[in-house]
Amino acid sequence: MIIILCKLRSNLDYIYIKQGNYLLQVNIYAYVSNVKIRSQSVETLENGGIKTELELRDDSTDTYTTCIIYSNSLEAFSDQIQSAQIIRMHRARIKKTINEKLFLYGKLKTAGFAVLLFSGRLGDGFNPVYRSSAKFTISPDYKERVGLII
User: Fold this and answer.
1) Is the residue at 94 inside a domain?
2) CB neighbours of 59 closer than 8 A, spacing ≥ 6?
3) Of 15, 33, 67, 126, which has the fewest Cβ atoms less than 10 A away?
4) Which residue has the higher pLDDT, 63 or 50?
């Protein structure tokens, strides 16, 4: 199940991905079912772009939800992300493809967008294994939210 926290009216509500609106910013916990990493740079030593495409599972649809995270080669995100992890994204955006399918996206090291990764294994204490920002704080109920997804 993908748990999405988004700003609706004056408070924060949880919704399913299929209820999201185009260009809505969301905070999300999700199960990563597949990972594809593509380098957009021909020079591996330069600070080139990396596109990480994730397939996230959601109880609200029969298919996966695509998420694209852009980063540079100097960041550790593409080395840390794996299938069967839990991802927590802050200020991801929702967009529609030409065929009306929704997907999530964000770029690391831009204002507001940040990522936390959890191992996704029961019994590991649900401690984060990666943070894209040292300032990314964890909510007091994060263990409960991660536990709902596993």
Assistant:
1) yes
2) 1, 2, 16
3) 33
4) 50
